[in-house]
């Protein structure tokens, strides 16, 4: 995975994609980035700032979608330039790929769109790293074909993110068998520890979640040997304009990452003894 400004890649730690669900404003994005950069530098965790410049998949027409594409993308670039870190954002159509690629280092394909050939090919042709979220409706084995579309379009810089599998109408489950299965494809595999706890299809039209289990999901992923973690975090999730119900409060992030690094070190120690 070729990412300029991705630090501590030789630390042995998992890498982290983290930030707010959506860019709500410059001060908010810069504040979150500054705090996470401080934490990840202390723990030597390779860090990529995450923020959606626009939310296209919302439950209701009156849901917040963004502050304007260009404005939000410029904020993402400012985060990258100020803190010398890579940034990632979602894209939703093939036309958006080229536009977003001018501002960000990683293009993320939303789970519901992971089979869209035109979108995957357009993302690949930008030359940016492409992070494909596994569809809630797909088996881990099926993600091989999504990744292969990017490779066949001339781009080998692919990541795959597990974000839970639909179970009934209002739940998601993480099948941890999928992590080693997808790692066999030869690409880094990420576990989304926040969206995996979403509870969609609520009667209110607002997606719910179980953020109290974020640490449970993340610990299990690190124990299994996942390459990276994805987390959405916000200083006040209850006031977040998108996905607040399943976000991690920002003031809990340092303690959680500290404990996860300890688990990572234990896993690596056990692995080295087996060789």
TrEMBL record:
Catalytic activity: D-arabinose 5-phosphate + phosphoenolpyruvate + H2O = 3-deoxy-alpha-D-manno-2-octulosonate-8-phosphate + phosphate
Recorded metabolic or biological pathway in which this protein acts: Carbohydrate biosynthesis; 3-deoxy-D-manno-octulosonate biosynthesis; 3-deoxy-D-manno-octulosonate from D-ribulose 5-phosphate: step 2/3; Bacterial outer membrane biogenesis; lipopolysaccharide biosynthesis
Keyword field contains Transmembrane: no
InterPro entries: Aldolase_TIM, DAHP1/KDSA, KDO8P_synthase
Keyword terms, alphabetized: Cytoplasm, Transferase
UniProt EC number: 2.5.1.55
Keyword hit for Cytoplasm: yes
Molecular function GO terms recorded: 3-deoxy-8-phosphooctulonate synthase activity
Pfam families, per database record: DAHP_synth_1
Primary location class: cytoplasm
Sequence ranges assigned to domain DAHP synthetase I/KDSA in this UniProt record: 13-255
Top-level class of the enzyme under EC nomenclature: transferase
UniProt-annotated location(s): Cytoplasm
GO cellular component: cytoplasm
A GO biological process held by the record: lipopolysaccharide biosynthetic process
Family classification: Belongs to the KdsA family.
Name recorded for this polypeptide: 3-deoxy-8-phosphooctulonate synthase
């Amino acid at each position: 995975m070729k990412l300029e400004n991705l630090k501590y890649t030789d630390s042995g730690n998992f890498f982290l994609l983290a930030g707010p669900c959506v860019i709500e404003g410059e001060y908010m994005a810069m504040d979150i980035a500054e705090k996470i950069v401080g934490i990840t530098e202390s723990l030597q965790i390779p860090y990529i700032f995450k923020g959606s410049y626009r939310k296209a998949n919302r439950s209701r027409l009156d849901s917040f979608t963004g502050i304007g594409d260009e404005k939000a993308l410029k904020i993402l670039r400012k985060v990258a330039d100020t803190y010398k870190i890579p940034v990632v954002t979602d894209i939703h159509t093939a036309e958006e790929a080229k536009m977003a690629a001018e501002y960000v280092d990683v293009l993320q394909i939303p789970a519901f769109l992971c089979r869209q050939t035109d979108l995957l090919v357009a993302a690949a042709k930008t030359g940016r790293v492409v992070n494909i979220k596994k569809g809630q409706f797909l088996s881990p084995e099926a993600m091989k074909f999504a990744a292969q579309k990017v490779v066949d379009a001339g781009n080998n810089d692919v990541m795959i993110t597990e974000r839970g599998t639909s179970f009934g109408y209002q739940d998601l489950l993480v099948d941890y068998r999928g992590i080693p299965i997808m790692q066999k494809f030869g690409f880094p595999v990420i576990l989304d520890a926040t969206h995996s706890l979403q509870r969609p299809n609520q009667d209110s039209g607002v997606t719910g979640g179980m953020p109290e289990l974020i640490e449970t999901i993340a610990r299990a992923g690190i124990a299994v040997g996942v390459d990276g973690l994805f987390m959405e975090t916000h200083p006040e999730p209850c006031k977040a304009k998108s996905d607040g119900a399943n976000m991690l409060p920002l003031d809990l992030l340092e303690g959680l990452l500290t404990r996860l690094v300890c688990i990572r070190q234990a896993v690596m120690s056990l692995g080295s003894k087996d060789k």
